[in-house]
Write a structure and sequence with these properties.
The chain is mainly β and about 350 residues long. It folds into two domains: about 5-10 and about 20-200, Jelly Rolls, CATH 2.60.120; about 205-345, Jelly Rolls, CATH 2.60.120.10. Helices cover about 5% and strands about 35% of the residues. The protein contains four helices and 27 strands. A nine-stranded mixed beta sheet has the order 1-2-23-20-25-18-17-16-26, with helices on one face. The radius of gyration is 20 Å and the shape is globular. About 45% of the residues are buried. The protein binds fe (iii) ion. Fe (iii) ion (FE) binds near residues 244, 246, 251 and 285.
Length: about 350
């Protein structure tokens, strides 16, 4: 195990606020994992890198990066009480979702409510995806069925396992393939209403602009009965957003490209592509995009903070943040502050809001 890197505690801060690097804390606290770090398991022909467990987050939520070679298969299964979401990072992936078969590519997003049978196979070498689970404990499958693994990439020589082996207390039920599969199902360009299974094509979702940044809501709170919402944030390098905290909302930051500077309490933490940072409820934080064309993905639980982005942003039909940014609508955020799980601790930056007459 990597040595624990303790940061000096700022005066007045509780021990729990320490940001740990490259280890899972085992108790709820802010922590950063560098790319490739986490609890690693070989499970069949997959490498599962667990980056967040319920005990690290203090909420029923967990994240795992799965990777494998061409043809590696994760057999059909469902979860009784776990809601899952997947995002493809590298390579094409064949996904069975209910009775539909999709060909997924990087950037595609999958919503998997409890009870939905799902399976996947990597179509390319170096296949990689990130899976987040909510509500149930399906994520404990990797520790229960997998073997601890020191490598940081999947082994091409690992053999498949007996997936059907029941694991007591783990919310994973392996099921037989149905005979009525619908191949080559079209991916959606907008999330449907309600907690239903769906696949959203890369770049799609509810898009909006806040200053120079494009926010894309992929999974909305109503898609998981309020458990979480997920969004992509992308933009050029720019100023730090105002420091703030949430009383109930827990936030994850997963940097996909470019680079970010985070404020966690009073500590500055850098995120490079593949790095992960957890911000539990109650911890002041802010972020800054420090490289051009930075993209990061966030899963926030519970899901009711999503309305904040609609107050802050302007709806946007495009897919690429424009050269001339519209104003940050902090005026609207302030107006609705009472209904938002948001405590502002800094002054808003970005272009000023329009004059009151134009503010709707
Ligand atoms: Fe936040």
């Amino acid at each position: 195990m990597k040595p624990k890197i303790q940061r000096n505690l700022a005066p007045g801060r509780k021990k729990d606020d320490t940001v740990n690097l490259n280890q899972l804390p085992g108790k709820p606290s802010p922590y950063k994992l560098e790319a490739g770090e986490g609890m690693r398991y070989v499970i069949g022909r997959h490498l599962a890198t667990v980056i967040a467990r319920a005990e690290d987050l203090g909420v029923a939520m967990a994240g795992t990066i799965l990777s494998g070679s061409k043809g590696a298969h994760f057999p059909l299964h469902s979860h009784q009480s776990t809601h899952e979401a997947m995002f493809i990072l590298e390579g094409d992936v064949s996904l069975t979702l209910g009775n539909k078969v999709f060909e997924l590519s990087p950037g595609d997003y999958v919503n998997i409510p409890p009870g939905t049978p799902h399976a996947f196979t990597y179509l390319d070498h170096r296949g990689k995806l990130v899976a987040w689970t909510f509500g149930g404990n399906a994520n404990t499958l990797y520790a229960a069925l997998g073997q601890p693994y020191e490598g940081t990439v999947y082994s091409e020589s690992s053999a498949d396992i007996d997936w059907g082996r029941a694991v007591d207390g783990v919310d994973v039920q392996f099921v037989d393939h149905g005979s009525d599969l619908v191949a080559s199902t079209a991916k959606l360009e907008a999330a449907p209403e309600g907690a239903v299974p769906f696949v959203l094509r890369g770049g799609e979702g509810e898009r909006m602009l806040a200053g120079e940044q494009l926010y894309t809501l992929m999974g909305m709170a109503h898609n998981s009965d309020g458990l979480f919402h997920s969004l992509m944030t992308e933009g050029p390098k720019g100023p730090m957003i105002p420091k703030h905290m949430h009383e109930k909302t827990c936030e994850t930051f997963f940097c996909l490209s470019g680079g970010m500077e985070m404020l966690v309490g009073d500590e500055a933490i850098s995120l490079a592509p593949g790095d992960f940072l957890y911000i539990p409820a109650g911890v002041p934080h802010a972020f800054q995009l420090v490289k051009n064309d930075t993209r990061f993905m966030g899963f926030l639980t519970p899901g009711n903070f999503e309305q904040f982005f609609r107050y802050l942003c302007q709806p946007f039909d495009g897919y690429m943040y424009p050269l001339v940014p519209p104003p940050f609508r902090f005026d609207r955020v302030i107006q609705h502050l009472a209904e938002l799980d948001l405590k502002l601790l800094g002054r808003p930056g970005g272009p000023p809001p329009p004059p009151p007459a134009a503010a709707a």
